[in-house]
């Protein structure tokens, strides 16, 4: 995922952190610094480590995976898109991130 894609969907200053063993700590630090509740913030990721972090931190998760056999590493029921524009074109305006959680 590139900053260009994030800027295109309207995020002027996206918080992107490289994956590390401290991913949960990084997410919690960002939430605290920005004053956001986990339930109000989506986590967009392309790996199972991202999915696990979102789950552990209480964030809605949106998987990003290409098309094709084996491209989707996420558990059945996980919301997955090929790009973020696809998600925002489908979501009704004003839909909170938590409403987009997979059942």
Automatic annotation (TrEMBL):
This is Uncharacterized protein. It comes from Erythrobacter litoralis.
